Amino acid sequence: MSSEQEIFDKCGRTYNAGDVIFREGDVGNEMFIIQSGKVKIAKQLKDGVEKTLVILGPGDFFGEMAVIDKDVRSANAVAMEPSRLIALDEEVFEMHMQTNPKIVKKILKNLTSRLRESNQQIANLMIKDANRLVANTILLVVHKHGEEGPNGITMDINFNIQELSKMCGLDMIKTREIVDKLIKARVISLSGETIVVTSLENLEKFIKFLEMKEQFGE
What we know:
This protein is an alpha+beta fold. The protein is built from eight helices and twelve strands. Helix 5 (130-145) crosses helix 7 (172-184).
């Protein structure tokens, strides 16, 4: 039996799609490592709009601050698909940090990635133009979840207009309006409700155009 399976047998939990792992404001005393599946971390904004902060997959971890400072959760965590998670409280976390170098390496690797993504998100939040915010958010999703296909770049997550609006913190009407612009510009297309990036080059050009427009005015 692998050490990873042994850990899951002792600390593992399974969740179905839509199951809430924890809610913003809950008292936390565990961190989670995703063994399989996907988990969405989202925050409720003051106007009632839910903003998706990040979508995590196998090898990623979340909720680690609860192990360190025992503070309340700062966001919601929801399983997007059937998921297997390893839950570590402070005692178990410290034990495995000392005895399982594989987990230590995984945590350090993901921490570096998370810090980089956080910096990108902060920069994205500073964008005032909604058109550039939407286009830039799509680009960030492509870099993390994009997969080349015969008809363009699809994502390994459920990526539709509703999910895009949550990532941007915009309402559906405004997001759909901008999506229509991107479709007309041949940047993206819709396969049913799923967003497909038909041309990464056009997406980058569109963002550059909006940056120059914002910098130099109309």
